[in-house]
TrEMBL record:
This is SH3 domain-containing protein. The chain crosses the membrane at residues 1212-1243. The keyword Transmembrane applies. Signal peptide: none annotated. The lineage of its organism: Eukaryota, Fungi, Dikarya, Basidiomycota, Agaricomycotina. One of its GO terms (cellular component) is plasma membrane of growing cell tip. The keyword Nucleotide-binding does not apply. Residues 1340-1397 form the SH3 domain. InterPro entries: Gal_Oxase/kelch_b-propeller, Rax2-like_C, Rax2-like_second, Rax2-like_third, SH3-like_dom_sf, SH3_domain. Pfam families: Rax2 (PF12768), Rax2_2 (PF20842), Rax2_3 (PF20843), SH3_1 (PF00018). Keywords: Membrane, SH3 domain, Transmembrane, Transmembrane helix.
Length: 1397
């Protein structure tokens, strides 16, 4: 069958399985597993009232927790495990947490599960499960208490070396001795500096190139070097002036790679001089830096860029201006653009480091300003210098290298120790700078080294193994935490030696060790809140009384401390990020935060080191004052996000690169800057500091976010994802939705749930969850294995079909400004003379189409609430050779161009993308599709803006535009809409498009219910005498599909009911299939078994609408085979499908296939389903579907890519035999007809031979005229046989014909020109002469006529015809060939006269 699609009105789809029927109780919490493709399976449910709130995976076991007493049939208190390999639930020992668990973290390296929540045992709100020992214990720090005493989340830092605990609790530090010498007393205090900035050691610039231009001519103020580290107060020899009246430029170039955090500027207060404005540009990137600083008047943080203010208040010794983060550069340019008096000037100029530093080259360790001594280094063994390029052009870094024999013990190998000068206590990241081996061309020599950091303060040394085989320059973090400042009693050291187990094999029996620079990056200044106010005479000291924290606590996973966090912790346990809790405590108002409803619910760390915290809070003081519900900790302090955060609580965070996804109960930022586009979920761009919506969010609350396969999974209490703020328009998504990060749109979630979801998480302990299965939990009312907006692709699988849902989500239909009922139809005007037609009585002309009783209407179409897919087709793009699916129905969606498309879409399954059709959008519902070459025929119940299309339209897939010129609109009876239900084509008549449904005419051509459109002529034609009624389905029978089988509510001529009727293309006649009385009502679905006209299946509802039926035509009679179907059944499609395995053969259906019924089905044997298979005896449920409301959905159709599918087994003659027999029969018929034609011609010429012939006269058949064809005489002689009925134009005198019909005697009645009288053949040389006569004696005017037969018109000057085509005869003076015009195309040419009537 090729590619196969399944369409319908459903949001979820299940493969039917009677053996494991699952029902859901929404009062329980159900746990589901979710594969990487998104398919869902139910694992079990908790006790009534239970909830599942958290989960994580440890190796091949999934742990989940919440508040419950059982899961499935297993008793378990609040936490349990699930083993996928066995499908078993297991309780976790005894003495577990005695209260609700909100958070779990799986530590794979140590095989432990950390639990956080609201309980008292085995620890206070924190407990640890040892998977090896199968036992519970309290956390090493005993637990967390204070405030609400509840832990809401447990996450790791970016390197997974520490755990972050958040919630509503308090922490206290300060039971041990305070950190000593927290700031260098040599650094003078200034209100223009912060504790953080004053802790940064200035970079020594003694060897740098420094220029100040233009400079003052006064020698006491012209030396720019004097301001780098002034030896005295502001004045001569310690201050620099610019030239009077000039903007000044100070350039500092070090020609080496420098990592800087900002600049320190001290103004001059000499009379008539001083700087008021400046900017800083980095070298070599020439970027103007954005600077942050403390306003010395207000104490508030400010930022500036091109014009930064410098205070002229003489009490402000200096001001520190910091970059947005550490910047690697080789120098800076400072532009002094504003001044007071006659010129600008400075007293202090310093470039601030990232914290501290030390070089392996002793000459580079020069003394910094205010430092009592420089950084230093020592070594053992032999070390030699090498120059390395840096990532800054034209700069070099000199390093030391030492070789050591492979196999040398680490204790005997060379070693190197750095002793950086540290100005102040604080939390630092220590980085080892290792130049890449590619530039050195020594990659094969490189190996791994052991780095040992002694931070001081009684802390244990930090040991790390570092590989030096990096090809490019690399900064490797070797320590993160508190550092004690340098003093006469202690100096922090960083030591390097050969690793105990070196990596690599070396080169020539040697390893090479590399010693470069050590960089210390200050992350927070270790000072108390009162010291930070600047009220003391120094830049701050650590409070002796300790510090209080709220809602956040960091614990190194490898820590062996046994401190008690429920009371007070020693300072030695304080980590670099415990300051987050301190700042939160202060920002929330101190002690009052412990009694408020504030809580930190979610934490995530960015690779830059910044920590984002979300929850329920508003900060009222500190640098992040005004921040609401979300805040970031960076550069040693809390900071606000754009627009001060969000206007509602945050419950979950997920980070993907620089995109932070936030879930909760909010609608916008605190300042309502997005007009409501952040409902429940939002995305924050870390770099751009901007908020963006996920379309318009969801219509409820989000409780959990998870990252999987570059998608954000969203769980919560909502029913839709919104397409626009302030409305409830959007896609159905009950409790679970998925956002595609790469596509920037809502995508298919895979499975479908209907309920209130409380958890989604990855079934792996991987840090990012990519490519892993997932688990989902919540209060379910219903679920389906596969989630899909009305469409899936099917393929063969090992255990049933593989189901591939639509990769994107479809939306509700757009609100239209032009409803279907208000659209106007364009009138069609008949062309040609109008005086000729009125002579014909229309009641006689169309008498064959009138009936005394109208057929019963078709059953009401099944409801198709948006989004629903009702039809599909496959198309191969000849340009790309890619097969695409085209779907139609009742839906809308936003394409990649953000354009809203409706009712039609092109789906690329390889990229899971939907593309809308260009041009006007369908306004209504699409119910039928057909692709013929590159033309897409669209049928349904709709209009098309700017066109007269009504229920039918044609779209050119290659030119991407609607073809509005060739197709005349369909029309319906008064008061009823046009509905096209079927568009098909037959291999017997490949140029004919058969359109069927509910309509009365096509253009001006009456053809109720079914009509054909000739693609080559662009002309509507009726099928024979036509039918009355409505058609629901069309199929084909015969070896070459020469028989059309139509089903619906049909009446043939003579008031013959035939809800299944057969039309023969060969003789253009309609016949009923069996007795119409044997079919109990209108037919809604039809199937012909492999084109066998003696094996037809029909389904529908009885005439009174009370019950469904399924009937089988065996070539002799109709038989009811669906008696077990229940009254709620509605069948939308029947289709024969092949089997991979066979079933027992019977007289109804062959063993290699089954009949697939689709719709909304109910039967006592299987309950309800959307698709079932019928083997001739039994119904076998196949698919069940679910609507977005959790109720039963329906399947509308199964469609496939093969244009004509044939089964491998046939129960009639083989194709080759049939072809041979057909050729023989055809040859005999043609010979017989040719013989009759020849005899007729001989008789026609007999009188010509007997009479006198004037040689000067031309015979009508002479070579000067186009010769009459043999076929025209054959047609005339066999007219009755071929046509089967009289033409309504045979008798030109209609009044005489009416009189004859009424019984009047008409002596002069003209006999039938094709009667048995031989004189008629002599009197009329062509059939047209006999029927129409000639217009030679009349004024030359055109008259209308119709084509009796089709004519290819391939000869020069000929015009092609299709049977039934209306033409205008322009010249009929030749007996054999007439000159005519096609009024629809404008083409003119000669046609056989015998072919017209």
């Amino acid at each position: 069958m090729g590619s196969v699609g399944l369409a319908g009105a459903f949001a979820g789809l299940d493969l039917f399985d009677n053996s494991s029927t699952v029902t859901f109780d929404p009062s329980t919490s159900s746990l589901l597993s979710r594969t990487s493709s998104g398919a869902l399976a139910s694992l079990g449910s908790t006790n009534s009232g239970g909830s599942i709130l958290a989960g994580c995976a440890l190796n091949d076991v999934f742990y989940f927790a919440g508040s419950f007493s059982s899961i499935g049939s297993t008793s378990a208190a609040n936490i349990a495990s699930y083993t996928p390999s066995s499908g078993a639930f297991t309780a976790l020992g005894s003495n577990g947490p005695n209260g609700a668990i909100n958070a779990l973290y799986c530590d794979t390296a140590n095989s432990k599960v950390w639990a956080g929540g609201h309980f008292t045992s085995p620890g206070s709100s924190v407990a640890v499960w040892d998977a090896h020992a199968n036992s519970w214990s309290a956390a090493p720090f005993k637990g967390l208490a204070g405030a609400e005493g509840e832990v809401l989340s447990i996450t790791s830092n970016y390197s997974q070396s520490s755990l972050f605990f958040s919630g509503s609790f308090s922490t206290s530090f300060g039971t041990g001795a305070p950190l000593n010498n927290t700031n260098n007393p040599n650094v003078p205090f200034s209100p223009g500096a912060s504790p953080f900035s004053s802790s940064l050691v200035p970079i020594p610039l003694q060897g740098a190139e420094i220029e100040g231009s233009p400079s003052s001519t006064d020698p006491s103020y012209s030396n720019i070097q004097n301001i780098l580290c002034p030896a005295g107060p502001d004045g001569p020899g310690n201050t620099w002036f610019a030239a009077d009246g000039n903007t000044a430029l100070i350039t500092v170039r070090d020609y080496s790679s420098i990592s800087a955090y900002g600049v320190r500027l001290g103004n001059t207060f000499q009379s008539g001089h001083g700087t008021t404005a400046f900017s800083v540009t980095s070298i070599p990137d020439n970027a103007v830096q954005t600077l942050s600083y403390v306003d010395p008047v207000t104490g508030q943080n400010q930022t500036c860029s091109t014009t930064c203010p410098l205070s002229t208040n003489s009490s402000i010794l200096y001001q520190d201006f910091l970059f947005t983060g550490p910047v690697t550069l080789s120098g800076v340019q400072i532009t002094l653009s504003g001044w007071t008096g006659t010129s600008a000037g400075l007293h202090i100029l310093q470039l601030l480091s990232t914290g501290a530093f030390a070089s392996a080259i002793s000459s580079n360790n020069t003394q910094s300003c205010y430092a009592p001594n420089p950084s230093n280094s020592t070594s053992t063994g032999t070390w030699t210098q090498k120059n390395a390029n840096t990532n800054i052009p034209a700069t070099l870094q000199t390093v030391l290298v030492s070789t050591v024999a492979v196999g040398t013990p680490a204790s005997q190998a060379p070693s190197f120790t750095w002793m950086p000068y540290v100005s102040a206590s604080g939390n630092y990241d220590v980085n080892l700078i290792v130049p890449g081996c590619t530039d050195f061309q020594d990659c094969s020599l490189r190996t791994s080294v052991q780095i040992t950091v002694f931070p001081g303060g009684g802390q244990s040394p930090w040991v790390t193994n570092v590989s030096q085989t990096n090809t490019a320059d690399q900064a490797t973090l070797v320590y993160s935490g508190p550092i004690i400042p340098s003093s006469s009693n202690f100096v922090t050291t960083v030591s390097l030696t050969l690793a105990a187990t070196p990596t690599g094999s070396g080169q020539g029996g040697q390893y090479e060790l590399v010693a470069g620079n050590v960089q210390l990056v200050l992350t927070s200044a270790n000072v108390s809140s009162n010291a930070a106010s600047g009220s003391s005479g120094s830049n701050g000291t650590l409070s002796q009384g300790g510090q209080e924290g709220f809602g956040f606590f960091e614990w190194p996973i490898s820590s062996s401390s046994t401190a008690d966090a429920t009371t007070a912790l020693p300072n030695t346990t304080e980590t670099s990020f415990d300051n987050v809790g301190f700042d939160l405590f202060s920002g929330l108002g101190g002690v009052s935060s412990l009694t408020s409803s504030a809580a930190i619910a979610a934490v995530v760390q960015h690779p830059s080191g910044a920590i984002f915290l979300g929850g329920t809070f508003t900060l009222s003081t500190g640098p992040a004052s005004g921040a609401a519900n979300i805040v970031v900790y960076k550069n040693g302090a809390l900071a606000t996000l754009s627009n001060n955060g969000l206007n509602g609580p945050v419950t979950s965070l997920a980070l993907y690169g620089n995109q932070l996804y936030v879930g909760g109960s909010f609608a916008d930022t605190s300042s309502n800057s997005t007009q409501g586009k952040l409902s429940g979920v939002a995305m924050y761009d870390v770099q751009a500091n901007t908020w963006a919506g996920l379309n318009a969010g969801v219509n409820g609350n989000v409780v959990r976010l998870a990252l999987a396969n570059e998608e954000i999974q969203i769980a919560g209490n909502f029913s839709k994802v919104l397409s626009a703020p302030g409305t409830n328009m959007g896609m159905d998504a009950s409790g679970f939705a998925t956002w595609g990060i790469s596509t920037g749109s809502w995508v298919n979630s895979g499975g479908f749930v209907f309920g209130n979801m409380t958890f989604v998480g990855n079934g792996t302990s991987s840090s990012n969850g990519q490519g892993q299965s997932q688990f989902l939990a919540g209060n379910l009312e219903n679920m389906a294995q596969y989630g899909a907006s009305g469409f899936v692709m099917l393929s063969n699988g090992n255990n049933g079909p593989n189901v591939m849902p639509l990769g994107v989500q479809l939306d509700d239909t757009m609100e239209s400004s032009s409803p279907l009922s208000s659209r106007k139809r364009r009138s069609h005007h008949r062309r040609g003379p109008v005086a000729w037609i009125p002579h014909i009585k229309f009641s006689n002309l169309f008498a064959r189409q009138t009936t005394g009783d109208q057929p019963a209407p078709l059953p009401t179409l099944p409801p198709a609430p948006a989004p629903a897919v009702l039809a599909g087709a496959f198309w191969t793009n000849s340009t790309s050779s890619k097969e695409l699916a085209i779907i139609g129905g009742n839906f809308s969606f936003s394409s990649s161009s953000s354009t809203e498309s409706q009712a039609l879409a092109i789906y690329d399954s390889s990229s899971s993308t939907l593309t809308g059709l260009q041009g006007s959008q369908v306004n209504g519902t699409v119910r039928a599709l057909l692709v013929d070459d590159n033309q897409l025929f669209v049928g349904g119940e709709f209009t098309l803006g700017g066109t007269s299309a009504n229920g039918l339209a044609v779209y050119d897939l290659m030119t991407q535009g609607w073809n509005t010129s060739s197709l005349q609109a369909l029309r319906s009876s008064t008061g009823s809409p046009v509905v096209v239900r079927s568009i098909t084509t037959s291999t017997f008549k490949p140029n004919l498009i058969i359109v069927a449904g509910s309509f009365s005419q096509a253009g001006s051509l009456p053809c109720p219910g079914i009509c054909s459109f000739d693609m080559s002529m662009g002309q509507w034609n009726s099928l024979g005498n036509g039918i009355q009624g409505e058609v629901s389905s069309v199929k084909y029978a015969g070896n070459n599909q020469e028989l059309l089988i139509a089903a619906g509510s049909i009446v043939l001529s003579g008031n013959t009911p035939a809800n299944v009727a057969q039309f023969s293309f060969s003789n253009t006649t309609w016949t009923a299939v069996g007795s119409g009385a044997d079919i109990p009502g209108p037919v809604t679905a039809l199937e012909v078994d492999n084109t066998n006209a003696s094996s037809i299946f029909a389904a529908g509802r009885t005439s009174d609408g009370s019950s469904p039926f399924l009937s089988f035509w065996n070539g002799v009679s109709w038989n009811n085979i669906g008696s077990s179907l229940q009254s709620t059944t509605n069948v939308s499609q029947l289709v024969m499908v092949p089997l991979q395995n066979t079933h027992a053969a019977n007289s109804v259906i062959e063993s290699d296939r089954m009949l697939m019924l689709s719709g909304s089905l109910a039967d006592s044997s299987f309950g309800t389903a959307s698709s079932v298979l019928f083997d001739g005896t039994n119904f076998i449920p196949y698919f069940s579907s679910m609507s977005s409301q959790g109720t039963l959905g329906f399947v509308s159709s199964l469609f496939y890519s093969y244009a004509s599918f044939s089964f491998s087994q046939h129960h009639f003659l083989a194709v080759g035999v049939v072809i041979l027999i057909s050729i023989a029969i055809a040859a005999g018929v043609v010979f017989l007809l040719a013989l009759i034609g020849i005899l007729w011609t001989l008789f026609s010429r007999r009188d010509d031979k007997l009479g006198k012939v004037d040689p000067a006269e031309e015979d009508d058949d002479s070579i000067s005229h186009r010769p009459s064809s043999l076929l025209e005489h054959i047609n005339a002689a066999t007219r009755t046989t071929i046509l089967g009925t009289q033409s309504p134009f045979n008798n030109f005198n209609i009044e005489k014909e009416e009189a004859a019909r009424e019984g009047a005697v008409t002596p002069t009645a003209e006999p039938d020109p094709f009667g048995p009288d031989a004189s008629n053949y002599l009197r009329a040389e062509t059939p047209s002469d006999a029927v129409i006569g000639t217009l030679a004696a009349e004024e030359e005017v055109s008259r209308p006529a119709h084509a009796r037969y089709s004519f290819d018109g391939s000869g020069e000057g000929e015009m092609p015809l299709t049977a039934g085509l209306e033409v205008e005869v322009l010249d009929d003076r030749d007996n054999a060939w007439w000159y005519a015009r096609n009024p629809h195309s404008g083409q003119e040419g000669v046609v056989p006269a015998a072919y017209l009537y």
